[in-house]
Input
Amino acid sequence: MAHHAHPPANAAAFDEVDPHGEGFGHGHGHHITPAIVLQLILAVLLFFTALTVGLAQGEKWISAAFDVTLPHWVNVVVAMSIATIKSTLVLLYFMHLRHDNPINSIIFGFTILAFAIFLCFTFIDIGNRGYLDPVKVHHRWNGYMGVSDDGTVQGEAPPFLAAVDKRFDELKRRAMAAGASEDAALAQARKDLEAEFRYSVKGHGLPHEDLVKRLASKDLLGPEVVADIRAHAPHGHGHGPAAPTGTSVDRARPKKGDTGVLRGGGVTTDTH
Amino acid sequence: MATINAQPHGEPHGGPGHDIDAVKRPMWARYKHGHHFRTQDDEFDACKTGMWLFLATEVLLFAGLFMSYTFFRYKYPEAFANGSNYLDWRWGGLNTVVLLISSYTAAMAVRNAQLDQQKALQRNLLITVVCGALFVVIKAVFEYGPKWAQGKRPGEWFSYPFAHDAMEPAWWSVYYSATGIHALHVLIGMALLYRCYLRSKRGAYGPTHYTMVENAALYWHLVDLIWIFLFPLLYLIH
Output
């Protein structure tokens, strides 16, 4: 009869059904989480979800009601702290890391470390562009120079601006497919676009200034319509006063005298 | 005749003179672990650690997406603050609750397998799959559908005429790629858990063999973990 190199500790009769003497039944050393613990963790997770939503809404309400702008990082730090607490609970109890072989926790910890290195190095890079190599400073949308007051786009329209004409063409095509003549379709498209514009303004406030100027051009909605909409526009979402430097597209436009000088010595340009 | 001194719990006893092999033990009790492992437990631990290694790669996949979010938010903060206003936090919140509950039922399913509670195991696995389906349906019907129709689309396909910021196509790119790849993982997790459900109906899982349930549940918890971070980053910034 073949022998194992290590005979079983209890030298009872050899059992062909169970040669390794492990017995059957509950797995040895497998921790079974009590149901009440799982239910408690779920309740805590739901509470933290409500808390994070409540705090985010509360911040919005505070800045609208008291006209005070909280620093931007507050929102991020609070939300990420709560998310970290929630994920730690899921990892420890739902994913069983608390009562598991430590190697699994080490693997996960190392993953987070790898992610942290990824973030840090990338930000060391992009946060410091433009210090050493002025040649590499670019402008986005080199051909775009803004929208003039009568609504004509100067240079090549960037995607967010091209969307207006795209949508107008779509509406016109829809009207013509319904059987209207060229002029009737044009009028119908104008009406539809105006309705969509009013709906959007009602929900989100006025869109980007260049878009409003483009919509006010004679071949789209016309200046009187847009002036009327502008007059009745709500204040928007109240996420604080508009940044004084305008939005990203304004920074993208090359300004007079901008030769891409080193940061700190000249005009702020958008690096590649 | 070999002495039979080991019987799984809860199996019908053969009675005097019955050879135990004539009485069918449930499938999980008949499972034989791979011979290159000393014990069943060694195999289970190895499989679980292997699963954690795989989860590490999944975390790094989403790390790339979170990196793109961080980078673009750093570059175009107004576009992201504006973009977040287009999203309805109530749908996002509902999806969060759905996923948290499904995580709970997945953890309960593992517990059921450990305690040989077969009916409860099947029920909890099924509830988890249904919650996953609910998540995907809410996302597709109430979020993606209306947005895509209005032209709020990523990058090149952007055709929403009333954008608030010039870089809104970038915001939508980040939104769709992060939530889309997450939704793909929800579907994969659902497929794994549904397979577990079908096998559990045949008695494949029990106290000594529930590795597949454990690993599928781990994958599902990871999907929930990712959403726990995605939800505030996309819906709650302003």
Remarks:
- DSSP finds six helices and no strands in chain B.
- The CA atoms of residues 136 and 183 of chain B lie 7 Å apart.
